[in-house]
Fold each of these.
Amino acid sequence: MRGLGPSPAAPAATGRVGVDREELIGRVGELQDEFARSSMRAQSKEMLDQHLTLAQFRALVLLHGQEGLTMSEVADVLAMRPNIATGVVQRLEDRGWVERTRDADDGRVRRVGLTADGIATVDGIVTEARSDFLDLASALTDEQLGQMASILETLIVARAAQGRGAAGTGGAAGAEPAADTDPA
């Protein structure tokens, strides 16, 4: 792990020449990894306080703000086998954080969504994580904050353009009908 001191990419970030784009992108990736690792402690604490596994946390975050996803969509977006996703959702349902309901258009299809308690749980975790991030961001100058906002907006647009920004886009959604349908 590289320290936070000056880096070979720093001159390019200040407008100096001599560092190629690929090196700079590599350095940004390293810094993003380092920041993610350093942020894991706070995120892990919130998950542990709620007795959540990483898979359960990912499922809660995925379902937050969604109308209701099929189990195939949940499995696809979380990149897990449908039977594993079903187990994760079942444990969250047992805790009262998610519910499965019949699809209004096709009664065989079950949709998964957060309950009010599930929404409150995710909101609490997100609020803590956001508070931690904003405390860190307060160390930045106004100019740096403006740059960061602009960069994040650009990255969000780029992610959406790649088609990975929304749940259930493409992939194998619907490929596992047995996980979504009620045998009755």
Amino acid sequence: MELSLESTTLPRAGTETAAPPRAAMSSSLMEPDLAHRAGLRTVAVYEAIKGILVLAIGFGLLALVHRDIQALAEMWVDRFGLNPEGRYPRMFLTLADRMADTRLWLICVGAVFYSLLRFVEAYGLWMARRWAEWFALVSCAVYLPVELFELWRGISIFKLTILGINGLVVLYLAYALYSSAQVRVKANAV
């Protein structure tokens, strides 16, 4: 294999080299760095896990269609040794008594829709898409007032953990969007 010096052009002494094209420079500046990509992928895994859990619950409820839900609920309360007159077991039994097949189907369809949204969001975050960052920020921030209200009604470790995780995700995504906007401003200034 022969190399030809004619095909390579070197700048002559005293001449300035041309700057890289602006489009190439701005796209390389806008590439997410490794830490940003790792953060987005962590949030993507979190969102995918939420989607998987809701989908599993939806399919679990689908298995209850055309079954005596009240009898199953009473069996679960008995099996776990709960007092049927207690607050939560009574709420559970009342809910089971009111559950019809149509309502179960609607809940399952809602679970599938919610899971699809979480999977699309997780894919977009995994691929570092800006629309997914905005979607994730809004979809996580929407829950914060509800979580704060639930915490106001009664403090528990579970509620604090959920609020903490969602709060951290919202703060991270807001920071990521702000810092990527700063990179875009610098890229446009070049």
Amino acid sequence: MIVVDNMMKHNYQKQDKAWVISRLSIKCNLVVTIFLLFTGSAMAAMTDEVKQIQFLWDEVNYMADGEAKEKAFEKLVEQANQATLVNHNLPEALVWQGIVYSSYAGVKGGLGALGLAKKARKAYQAAIAMDGSVLNGSAYTSLGVLYYKVPGWPLGFGSDKKAEQYLLKGLALNPNGIDANYFYAEYLYEETDRLEDSFKYLLKAEQSKDRPQRPRADAGRREEIKALKQRIKQDLAD
């Protein structure tokens, strides 16, 4: 649910403050990486309040970048928090709260983005504590994305090891899902040298079925799949 390209590890202690802020903004640019795969049963499990957050997120996420988009996400955070309060026993609400926080972190950027990413992590962890299989394992997948997008120590909590663990848990629960496969493919491409494996999971994501309730999300995801395929093909050819 969630948006960074070509992340690399750096020694942040040796960098000046302006450079660190710039990298954190890129690392926490999670806007377009957090898309969730919802089947009919998963949609039925969501309350009207949570479905409204999903609908609004789809709309806000595709706005043009700029101040209006940031303000829209700021408002959506408030609505997601309210939906979580109203539906405090529903892990679905917590997952979407995490998605909104992650997306807002990406739009906001800078050092303030890390605090939002931490709130997203807390929401995903709470959802998993209630029901790790919620929304076809999307809490695991989304948490895995956070761990490889956010900078590692000493600046952030990022961890490639934890990222892969959570991404694989999400895949186990949703082996044919477009997002579970795409995000693992992206992780393999950005954080490892396993290009062939990345391409394999990308093809599996490409072959997944469209989600009737998420046409805009599916269109965006398939464009990202296409772009990543081209990058992998080019790297393999070099």
Amino acid sequence: MREITTQKFYMGFPVFILTLFDESEDILSTTLSSAYSLGDQLVIGMSRAGHTAQKIKVGTRLAANFLSDEDQLLSDIAGFIPARRRSSLLAETGVKFEVFDSVPYLPNSLITVIAEVTQIVTDERYQHLFLTIESRLLANEQTDFQTFNPLLYVGDDKIRYYKKTTQDLAKSGSTLRKTRK
């Protein structure tokens, strides 16, 4: 085994799109992959620099929409497109948000976790959200966990990939580039 030096390392965590309403009732969204849950708690790590991150406060209710391995384009749009164009571009691809208990979510996600932020721990670059899970919404066609196919994220600070549970790789952003040709 050898030691590697990198500022970031993505170990194959599931990709999800975080969705919430801002103070004007506009839907904010961003792609993330740093999360884990234990019992009724969800912990999410994210950069402090993004527009969506700056709008999240203690008491914010949001949805973590975990994507299937067929949702690379949605992940690219929510992760690479500027916030002011993101919702309209998602709509152009046929994405329709729904609302569950006053929280916007993506109904075609594998699983959506509705939660409330109870604590935020920050450092110079990152913030860690501690949330209490209120509801878990599972897509009807995905109740068989043998066919559960989450989109995973692997890589480091030099290159990042989407990883399908079938072992196929697609470079992050490649699906978006293909649709723009």
